[in-house]
Amino acid sequence: MDFQVVILAGGFSSNLVPLVSKEVPKALLPVANRPVLSYVLDLLESNNLKDLIVVVEGEDAALKVGGWISSACVDRLHVEVAAVAENIGTAGALRAIAHHLTAKDILIVSGDIVSDIPPGAVAATHRRHDAVVTVMLCAQPVSGPSESGGSSGKDKTKKPACEDIVGLDSWKQFLLYIAKGTEIKKDTRVNKSILCAAGKMELRSDLMDSHIYAFKRSVLQEVLDQKPAFRSLKQDVLPYLVRTQLRSDVSSDQNNVEENGNGKDNMQNNEVVLSQILSNASLPSFHQVYESGLDSRKTHKCCVYIADESKIFVRLNSIQAFMDVNRDVIGDANHLSGYSFSAHHNIVHPSAELGSKTTVGPHCMLGEGSQVGDKCSVKRSVIGRHCRIGSNVKIVNSVVMDHATIGDGCSIQGSVICSNAQLQERATLRDCQVEAGYIVCAGGEHKGETFARR
Amino acid sequence: MGAQKKGGGGARVSEDAEEQSRQRLQAILLADSFATKFRPVTLERPKVLLPIVNVPMIDYTLAWLEYAGIEEVFVFCCAHSTQIIEYLEKSEWYSHPNLVVRTIESHKSISAGDALRYMYEQQTETSQIQGDFVLVSGDTVSNMPLADLIQEHRDRKKKDEKAIMTMVIKQSKSSSLTHQSRLGTDQLFIAVDPLTKQLLHYEEDKIDHPSGSVCLDKSLLESNPSVLVCNDMQDCYIDICSPEVLSLFEDNFDYQHLRRHFVKGVLVDDIMGYKIFTHEIHSSYAARIDNFRSYDTVSKDIIQRWTYPYVPDINFSGNRPLRLGRQGIYRACDAVLSRSADVGASSVIGYGTKIGDGDKILNSVIGNGCCIGSNVVIEGSYIWNNVTIEDGCEIRNAIVCDGVKIRAGAVLQPGVVLSFNVVVGRDFVVPAYSKVSLLQQPTTEDSDDELEYADSSSATADQLSGLNLQMESKASELGPDGAGYIWEVCEGAHDEEWKHSVAPIPEDKLAEITQAIDDDDTDDESVVPTSGELKSDADSINTDMNDPNDDYDYFEKEVEGTVLRAVEENIKVDLVTLEINGLRLSYNMESADCAGATFYSMMKLAVDTPHNSASELYKNAASIITKWKELLGFYVKKIDEQIEVIMKFEEMCQESPKELGPLFTQILHLLYDKDVLQEDAILRWAEEKAGADEADKVYLKQCDTFIQWLKEASEEEDEDDEDEEEDD
Q: A206–B226: do the CB atoms touch at under 8 Å?
């Protein structure tokens, strides 16, 4: 398909502390006992996108991710792992790996998504319109992906704060405007020239940018070269391309004259006709109208692909999101997990040992080799591999990672226990996060706390 | 007042829901555009009586209203009201079986708002308007059905009584180049909820460079998941209104323009919560003749039968129908055409008109009783009634009113408008876009362009008769044998002239605009920072919102001025306090801010008073503090306020370390002695400061001994207290 896929897998994301640690970069955080990155890789593989570059922030993290990839899927996919410096932003990361990029179009996927939206459809839309950039939009989740749950009590409106504001043309093909809702204080300003050219613009605040983009490589690299101040794809590069779509500075055509020959007028006309047939449009797009009206100017197209509302899309970018993803993957969205569920809607690995009178409810997962003592109750939780759980333990709505030890009589609700952590007897945790390897003392009652070594 | 009315209206709606359905359908027709776009023609004849394809505009509007099922029309006459009433009396509208036409006359109204207020006042006496009504102006040409739309409006009103108006819009993509619609109106930006069709934003833009942006309030997007912003819609100025609209005009006496004031007012006002909805028409026609360009466009639409059944070959208002020939040529049966005359497509020739040999007529309308000589070229022009055109004239894209004489060989360049009875001299070339009238241009242009015809019709007549005499003596501006004044285009409007003219937009203008767009774009580029709209937004908001620091600075300055004046004029402390309190309220400041600002101004005064040495400065300060301690005392009743004073003082010392710095302890002591500051305040300040950076502690160290002394003193005092207690 001549698409190169770049997966921006991040590094040790600070807003996921204490879940991430030196041993576990963000990309390897377990979602239903599989690294989150594996969901992205599976998704791409199922769309036959096999030429991948995984960009990881920091050498250490890159080693970890590389190690996992080589063990997991080296035989199926052609994956390169590239390490870039930390805190250089998404645009910076792409600048750093620019020499790896050779294909005509680049698909950029965030490494922390759990979704069943086909990225191939984005690529197809991109090709069909010969766009400079194609953005995938998906419906905004009802409960905000970030910590909106906590602050909602304070909001009078009870509406989710609009994450992104996007402007679409009347056929919902082109992206005319994009802004981050949280950064707009008072007014939304829509450029009149674009509005005049398109006639109508539908401003939507119920869609959000899903961080899956297809870029024309030449254009992306040109913009990155020309604008060294751009740090973020979403906040700098994308708005820039959208803003300038009717007076394009990017010389995409000239660069590609040899490749696809649309630099000359007659060729372009052919392509216009072709793209019209492909897009089933009876009218030429406003870009072409605009272009033909003023022979001196060039335009480029920014397209969108709007995912079906029934599709699942979650980004693992906060602790709350981590909890939600784990819950969804073993719950409502269990087709994503790739496991086969038992009749009780749960997965208990055959090698796991359960004590007497211990119940494992639906939407639960119990990893390989874990031991659970007597009279325990596990509800809507994920328990990793080789965990040792004592007797009389209650685990509800929680994630327990591999090799954790939980003493007798503990009660865990809405919490994350990272790998190798230890909970001594009768510890009660509610909405807590326990760092990897941390030891929580016996008998304590904790609510909303984070346990981590400084 | 408004709330009462609303309540009353709401109750009536629910009670008389049945009655509403059998209410007569009513309309208000504004027979005055309250604008000056058709001058100089409208100085002599009201706009609604100007012929469009040989039929007065008002006939189109009335015929359409009648066809659409309206039973009663109130024709609101303002300028030239006698002419309109006379015309209606002569026409068959007064005796029409299905449509009751009533005229309302008001000479005081200078805007649509005034007109509706006048209607409302009449309403209280006669209650003519019984329910929902259609509001149109007398220059509307349409064939859209109204009954369903009115029903839709009523249904919506029943569900949501805040839905007071439905306005009709039609798609008409404006040119991306000139940013005006084919009707010559300005760019229109509206935002509509795609599901409910509620109007959320309405913005007309006169500025023709495209670099601007449309601002939508953020709350708009938060409350609506989807907002449709349209630029390709034409406002037809056909509104279905509920009676609340009239009372809204009454309540808001400053509403003048239907759109600029009323619609915007309703959209902005969220207290009453009134809503306006839109209705888009697709298959039917609706347009308003707002300027010469739309006159041209609508005329062509009529000729090409978009407005069927209101077309020249159908009698819809007592007009004599013309015969339609091939190529869209309408001809009166008694028109005399020379064999050698070449009448091209889309032309109309009226009754009793003679066309001479070798004439070429294309895309033009020629009225009744015209006499056109030979070898005349008429292209894209509108010749009204009884016009005489002599041999060899050339007329392109012009409007020629009744009774005009164009002498042989004269040329009208594109965009010319000749008002009534003008005479163009032999071989004279009337320059492009000029407007010619027998009346002189009013020298004092009304500053408010809303105002229409300042002079009443009778005055015009007098002027006219006087003018004719004058004309003989004075050399005409239209050649030696011509008659008429060429109006000067007023400043600023010159560039705009081509936009509203009947003539097509000239090539060079297009090129110019293209160039302008390019320039704009480059400007735009440099303005927009790298991070896009987000940053620029933030900037503009900063300027919009008053920075609290700025506020405080202003406040401080004001207080300083007050104190200075008080010292100079020796005003009583009470009065100064009163004044500062006033400032405090107007700037929304705390009492502590007052204390800080007052102290600041006192010390500033001390510093500004001439002095040679530090001791003199101290003396100055001491005398001022002694004298005005009451004033300060008024604001430093609480410990917090006292601390504020000390902080302010510290700040001042830091700003001028040479002058005030060394005196810090002394003045602090003085303040303590004068009971302005209590020891608690000083000690607490010292405590707070103890944790600060070293650099911040300069003054704390300076007064270390003083603080030590204070501490000891307080301990002693405590001990004393204890002793005393023991004594007791």
A: yes
